Amino acid sequence: MGGRGLAAPDTVTVMVTKATVVPIGSIVADELHAAAERRLAKVGQRHTRQRRAILDLVAAAGRPVTVPDLLATDADGLSQSSLYRNLLVLEEVGVLQRVAGIGNHDRFELDESLSGDHHHHLTCTSCGLVVDVPTDRGVERAVAAEAAKVSDLFGFVVTGHSVDLYGTCADCL
Questions:
Q1: DSSP code of residue 44
Q2: Are the beta carbons of 46 and 89 closer than 8 angstroms?
């Protein structure tokens, strides 16, 4: 009933050094780290070696990851408490975003403002696997139309949305 770790055969782990430029979706590692450094500096924080390693792991995973996923990779020798602290700081400055998971394991992924990748999630209620689902124009138009109606009805200004679908993955059927 456990989730999938980052070391799974269908996952690519990428080592990124200062001289390496690795594409990560629509953003390359150097751009990702530069953006993270700017956002952290705005709140008086530094982009440490550990935070760099965490970002590299999250970006390379290609899916939302849990703290246990990251710990299983021996994320630069981080303790669980240090990993949590760093994830929260990276979330607070808008580098990572939290994806609600099943049970006690929220997941983290690159913030849409950095990745440029608007998507939704499909979550297995049995093992907790979370899969990114690419957006579809028709679905996005329908959500926008409903959001406009609901926002007018309740006096809200809608600034974004997410769609989370729940079910059972093929491995758990």
A1: T
A2: no
pLDDT digits (tens, 9 = 90+) for 94-114: 999 999 877 777 899 999 888
Q: 70: which 2 tokens? A: 């990251």
Neighbours of 69 (CB within 10 A): 24
Q: What are the domain boundaries of the chain? A: 23-167
- Beta bridge pairs of residue 95: none
pTM over 0.70: yes
What's 23-167's CATH class? mainly alpha
What are the b/e assignments for 11-22, b being 16+ CB within 10 Å?
Answer: beeeebeeeeeb
Q: Which residues pair with 133 in a beta bridge?
A: 120
Orientation angle between helical segments 80-92 and 49-61, nearest 10 degrees:
80
* CB contact at 8 A, 108 and 97: yes
d(CA 50, CA 130): 25
Question: How far, in Å, CA of 120 to CA of 4, rounded?
Answer: 19
